[in-house]
């Protein structure tokens, strides 16, 4: 299978790996959160690699910038949701730290990707 151009971006690879982690950890959340945190965390988690993929297909730097900014905002949203999950006892401190470090690494890579568009 041939890779799509976005799949070659390290930022996308990291965001995709983070999304897989989010799906795995939210599978353990209480059923009462199915339409709450589970759904929201999965959406914000998947939004980052989705926006990176879509933005990478745009021709203008301005359009790419907008999608990469959305991906960055989704990571911030996800960070808060992880923090809330920790405070509610749905995530262990180790799970939170793993998510936090993955979010920070992906955010850093997105910042570098955004800087390359200037």
How do the helices and strands line up, and which of them pair or pack?
Blueprint: H1 10-26, H2 34-56, H3 61-87, H4 93-115
Helix pairs in contact: 1-2, 1-4, 2-3, 3-4
Describe the structure.
The protein is mainly alpha-helical and 118 residues long. The chain is 76% helix and 0% strand. It is elongated and about 45 Å long. The chain has 4 helices and no strands. The mean pLDDT is 96. It has one domain (5-115): 23S rRNA-intervening sequence (de novo design (two linked rop proteins)).
N to C succession of SSEs: HHHH
Described by the principal axes of the CA atoms, the overall outline is elongated
Percent strand equals under 5%
CATH fold descriptor:
de novo design (two linked rop proteins)
Overall number of domains: 1
List keywords for this structure.
single chain, 118 residues, mainly alpha, de novo design (two linked rop proteins), elongated
Please summarize what this structure is.
The protein has 118 residues and is mostly helical. The chain has helices at residues 10-26, 34-56, 61-87, 93-115.
